[in-house]
Design a protein that fits this description.
Layout (H helix, E strand, L loop, with lengths): L4 H15 L8 E6 L4 E7 L4 E7 L13 H17 L6 E3 L8 H11 L5
Parallel strand pairs: 1-4
Antiparallel strand pairs: 1-2, 2-3
């Protein structure tokens, strides 16, 4: 009963989400990554609303790759700026079942540097 990498990640994500939820006071930063891109949303799970979002496919980040650490940092910087505009400073970090390593860790570090606390 061999499971694919995707199935294993989805199981990890479901396990994480059982314990993790975003509120209006402390929304959830959900990170999603592929080989070429990275994106994230700040979500209020109680209201079911996305408060801010950023992605490496946006026109403002044209020329940067989401498939490397520098691209992840650029997306995180943009998301931190949008969170600041929305008066969000406290968040819960949801790594989405991905290892806290490489692009995901760099993304989190850049969010902290941008003023978000988690």
């Amino acid at each position: 009963m061999a499971r694919t990498t995707r199935e294993l990640r989805q199981r990890r994500h479901a396990r994480i989400r059982r314990r993790l939820s975003g509120t209006a006071e402390r929304p959830r930063v959900a990170v999603s990554r592929t080989n070429k891109h990275i994106s994230a949303q700040i979500i209020d799970d109680v209201a079911g609303r996305t408060l801010a979002a950023a992605s490496s496919v946006e026109a403002t980040l044209k020329g940067t790759s989401g498939g490397n650490v520098e691209g992840a940092k650029a997306v995180a910087k943009l998301l931190a700026a949008r969170a600041k505009e929305a008066n969000i400073s406290l968040v819960v970090f949801d790594r989405g079942g991905f290892d806290y390593h490489g692009r995901v860790a760099a993304f989190a570090d850049e969010l902290r540097a941008g003023g978000l606390e988690f």
